[in-house]
Amino acid sequence: MIDLTRKKLFLLDMDGTIYLGDRLFDGTLDFLRRVREKGGRYLFATNNSSRGVTAYVERLRNMGIDAVEEDFLTSTDALIWYLRGRYDDALIYAFGTRTFRQQLREAGFRITDKREEGISLLVCGFDTELTFQKLEDACILLGDPKVDFIATNPDWVCPTAWGSVPDCGSVCEMLFRATGRRPKVIGKPEPEMALLAMDRWGCSKEETVMVGDRIYTDIACGVRAGIDTAFVLSGEGVPEDAEKYGVQPSETYRDIGEILEKLG
What is the pTM of this model? Predict the structure, then answer.
């Protein structure tokens, strides 16, 4: 049983957790307001690395949430956090969107989208600007065992208004079939996003909780980071997923409204 009254940092998945499509769930606004009233902090955690947070800020504001950029934590943020101190001087081939490359450049890294001498790392994100040239470049680079391989997230698909499109995980699977190389993954379900959030906001594991509707990404991330997890049944997940994926949430809730009831 989670004592939500003692939590200070709430890591929130978005689609399926606080809204579905363009519909904000009942209780979301009251939940966010209550967390702030208690002196807590919430962060919207997303694996999407194809764009900056500006589009998310606008989307949530259109739903009535007074969001600012500091309220978001993306897999690109976690990637930058991971790269610091490890690849500060490296020449990095960034396989992703223009926005993805720009974020990495602004963080101070040496970034290229051309195959050239001296590249020591390939980073792969969700790429809505995918070309065959990028796939060819990646295969050639991964043929060199001295070139490291990191991906922002393992998601197979990204939902759209009409269905799904291949996400970073699907592209990495193509590269694996062609090269035999698999990346180190940064985003959910790996723990780096949760660890970054605690490091950035100075909260302990005992003060932090991950809230999400997917056992295999949101909840698994929290479990691997050693924090409590709140599994909500308002999105993709069903109770049987815990056994299916071998990941046990700390607590299961109907929706964000039920979590609000437990905040005190």
Answer: 0.85
pLDDT tens for 152-179 read 999 888 867 677 889 999 999 999 999 9
* Phi, psi of 80, rounded to the nearest 5 degrees: -60, -45
Take residue 171 and report the two structure tokens written for it.
């592209």
Range 178-198 average pLDDT: 96
Residue 245 belongs to what domain range? Answer: 4-47+188-262
Tell me, yes or no, whether 26 and 122 share the same domain: no
Say how many domains are in the chain: 2
pLDDT at 51: 66
Average pLDDT over residues 205-234: 97
- What are the structure tokens assigned to 257, written together? 């409204």
Burial of 258 (0-12, 13-18, 19+ CB in 10 A): middle
Q: Is the domain of 81 the same as that of 27? A: no
DSSP the chain: ---GGG--EEEE--BTTTEETTEEPTTHHHHHHHHHHTT-EEEEEE---SS-SHHHHHHHHHTT----GGGEEEHHHHHHHHHTTTSTT-EEEEES-HHHHHHHHHTT-EEESS--TTEEEEEE---TT--HHHHHHHHHHHTSTTSEEEES---SEEE-SSSEEE-HHHHHHHHHHHHS--PEE-STTSSHHHHHHHHHHT--GGGEEEEES-IIIIIHHHHHHT-EEEEESSSS--TTHHHHHT---SEEESSHHHHHHH--
